[in-house]
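fwd from M.: "can u put these together and see what the complex looks like"

so here's what she sent:
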Amino acid sequence: MYNFQEIEKKWQNIWENDKVFFVKNEKDSLNVPKFYCLEMFPYPSGRIHMGHVRNYAIGDAIARFKRIKGYNVLHPIGFDSFGLPAENAAIKHKTNPAEWTKSNIEYMIKQLKELGFSYDWSRLVITSEPEYYKWEQLFFLRMYKKGLAYKKNSLVNWCGSCSTTLANEQVEDGKCWRCGSDVTVKNMDQWFFKITAYAEELLKDIDTLEGWPDKVKIMQKNWIGKSSGLTVNFKIAGSDENFIEIFTTRPDTIFGATYIAVSPLHPAAKNLIKNSKDLEKLETMRHNSLVSKDISEKEGFFTGSYAVNPFTDKKIPVFIANFVLMDYGTGAIMSVPAHDARDFEFAKKYGIEIIQVIEPAKEAETNNTSEDTADMPYTDGGILVNSGDFSGIASEDAKEKIADFAEKKGIGKKVTNYRLRDWGISRQRYWGCPIPIVYCEKCGIVPLNENDLPLILPDDVVFTGEGASPLKKHKSFIDTKCPKCGGKAERETDTMDTFVESSWYFLRYTLSEEKEKNPFKSEDVRYWLPVDQYIGGVEHAVMHLLYSRFFVKALRDLNYIALDEPFKNLLTQGMVIKNGAKMSKSKGNVVDPDGLIKKLGADTVRLFVLFAAPPEKDLEWSDSGVEGAYRFINKFYKIAADFSEIVKDAEGKFYVEGSNISQSSSNAASLNISAYEIKKADVNPSVKELIYRLNGIIEKTETEMNGRYHFNTVISSSMELINAFNDFTGALGREKLALLNKSDKYLLKHFLNSVILILYAFIPHVCSEIFEILNGSFIEDENWPEKIDAGYSKENCNIAVQVNGKMRDVVTAGIDSDEETVLKTALNSPKIKKYAEDKSVIKKVIYVKNKLLNIIV
RNA sequence: GCGAGAGUGGCGAAACUGGUAAACGCACUGGACUUAGAAUCCAGCGGAGCAAUCCUUGGGGGUUCGAGUCCCCCCUUUCGCACCA
């Protein structure tokens, strides 16, 4: 009987002791194609959850398949081990973040090993270790020297009660995710990476990522948010030198601009205001836009100043408006209420003039013209009207012409804007990579010397949970000497965003030796990168994947590597849900992998997770479905073990013609049919058919495992094969099975071995075991099964017969029969007669060979 | 509001370039084995109908000999962005 506990332990020990999945010296393997299979590494929260199991089961299936196919496979794992939870645990349980993290990692490694994933553990990466983060500090210094890392004053999310900044994703409905108090906006000095310098390249190269889901590519494109438009200077009425610079993507509507709207945070806002009482209003509005990002109600007021539309020479009012963002474009806009929804809403509210300057190009839309202008603006392109010399021109044309005109007159400039902002990496936290910078009284901001790295995060800190980061109170860390002048200096106490670590860990995995001397080696990166298959959740579609792309490009420009894009193919797996909701403690619908592994085994859990849905879809958890997976594995094991008992001879060898294929020989498991000549005439017709079906599924598996990764259909095909095998052997009975001739036995063994090799990717422990029982050798030494011609020839096939496109009957005909023959047979069928005969005339016949016949009467 | 998906039995899902819809599994029902149960095995299982037969891929229309699959409109739903000018 199938004892999964024993079997799984046995194979896990063998894999570990024999280093089965360690990458064999890649320098000698350059003649074999490489395959880098990568799963997003976990945060060491304490336990592996079902989402991890799914993610890693997918990756492992691919890695194992590719190995059997003969690839040189790199399949690593690590831990993204810096981050706030460790600090929270430190506060709550009075533990040390380093120790808490370490014990979590140890436990999770144990879990991953119990799940039997085929990682090369020698390449384990733990990002909170100095041997890892010291390289990150080095990259920071190099980026600083190149101007890619810089410091500036900026607005950040601030939780007053936790005394720390929060990342955007840690702000939920304007409240702190941890303590629930209101989040405000604060002005602070922050370190940034200049990701905007790569905005255009990051956008352009998205088109080269053919193996990425469109969804993710679109999300990244939207995030980068490129838009091209025009800046135009609007002179302040009554002044010769003062003007407001606005940004617009619709220069074609400029004749319809009836007011200027300026952000309350605009530096010129104060000077525009004529009535001193309005300065208070400005202050309130400034405060509001700083404190909350919510602008559900458009508000504003007239400054008392007017600007001159350079195209119409008309004076138009200048408003301060809360919906105008300071950090996009120029912080001021020209408002065209007739053709922009927001401008329209604002103009209606404050009674500002609305002038139509675009007419829909098509006259076709007749019935809703009058209504349109009253209730909503017309925001599409069309033909210009009321636009001076530009009237009559189409929008797209006019955009160009008006922009050219503005540039020629020196009042405007064509510009490209990006929504993408520079990446703020400063965190006022302890458990992160220290930023290697000191502040010297004399020299100002001074980077550390590279050979002073690593700057180690001190271990002796006190967590109170109150006030600033513990680093801020750590005198011996802060007090230092200036690397430049040797005078008194203080260290930077901010640490880096943890997305920095995950932006290059996949490069570190390629390093196998001299780890203390290099972050990675360029020749290793050249060999292994790009990652052939990256697998992870969609939640990282923008941040992590965009930051990693940026980092690779930056490292390229720092001459570390020659690589433009890190991830060739990306698979975003769906969530694991139960009772229609994402598993969470608060909903009480969490399924713990540990318990299931103990109860039903790792193979069962893995099989269910891969079988229940294709990887990109959400997976609905089902306890009885898991039991079904368990049943299948049991059945599979029993069928194979029984078969091996029956067909073995007294010496425990298989009946196989030619002594070169036996348990004792070195290539015992060889499926290479050239070693044995099948006597086709002797083969049982049912066995022939089994082999024929097998061939089709070997082929199907190969295409499926080559990028589509619908493991569920591969598994169901394997189940069909096992069922067919069982039907055959069951019907025959043990005695007759034992009396089958050698060709039959050989082919049946080949059949089972092939199914084992297909399923090995999904349920490796039990497949390794069955393979050993059947062949006495290791499955990892085996090759992917070849298709065998066992002499099966289809004589007849079923042909669907339709009359006027409706399914009416199925007839049997010889394979490759011509239309005439099939039609004759079909017309003999009583069912068809009934439908076709009384209509007397056959107008047309459509015949698809071996498949379908459609009679049109 | 904008953008991108999804909608097939009681459930998870199959169906490669349009060609026998529902493979595989779960649940369920009946049977065998058993003192009984569990496990296992066999059979059935989209809907209506005694049956012949008819209907069925969110709804409506279209293209086609033929549509789950292609085109148009609508409904529902999930996700992402959300005043980016």
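replying to her w this: Residues 364-373, 650-675 of chain A have pLDDT under 50 and may be disordered.
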